[in-house]
Amino acid sequence: MKCEDEVIPALQAFVEKHICWGFLMYFQRLRIVGYAWNHKRVYYVYVPLGLNRDVKRRSGCQRIQQLPDVPAVPNAVCSIDFMHDTVYVELRFRTIGVVDDGIQEIEIDISLSSERIVRVLDRLKEWGGTP
């Protein structure tokens, strides 16, 4: 009995469940399960089975794209993001972005103090309510 006769069924069991995995993930899972084969022996079987093809080309590996869930009511989800960047003349500017389903507010300035951020959030609270 060849050692490949043991590797093939163990490897194919993982391939049936997880077709999008690559060689290293299969090898690591085989080691976790308890097989003590080295990577050369597993790869020696992996290539003739045709598993070394690019993941994008494997059949059955396409993921279904789903749109994110959008809440039905406004002010259900709110996100605040702080960013900064530098322009050509070494001038730094900072932004705060507040995004909701009904509101998109962006405040840009060279310096955003905490008082200014509070004013922006209070203005949004008066205009659209709080989440």
What can be said about this structure in brief?
This protein has helices at 4-17, 23-33, 39-46, 114-128, and strands at 78-86, 92-100, 104-109. The chain is α+β, with helices and mostly antiparallel strands and 131 residues long. It has a three-stranded antiparallel β-sheet with strand order 1-2-3, covered by helices on one side.
How large a portion of the residues is in β-strands, by DSSP E? 15-25%
Round the mean pLDDT to the nearest integer and report it.
79
Radius of gyration: 27 Å
Task: Extract low-pLDDT stretches.
Answer: none
Q: How does the major sheet shape up?
A: 3 strands, antiparallel
Structural category:
alpha+beta
How many strands appear in the DSSP assignment? 3
Question: Which descriptor suits the 3D outline?
Answer: elongated
Written account of the structure:
The chain has 131 residues and is α+β, with helices and mostly antiparallel strands. The protein has helices at residues 4-17, 23-33, 39-46, 114-128; strands at residues 78-86, 92-100, 104-109. The protein folds into 2 domains: 4-57; 78-128, no CATH class. Strands 1-2-3 form a 3-stranded antiparallel beta sheet, covered by helices on one side. A hairpin with a 3-residue loop joins strand 2 (92-100) and strand 3 (104-109). Helix 1 crosses helix 2 (23-33). It is elongated. The mean pLDDT is 79.
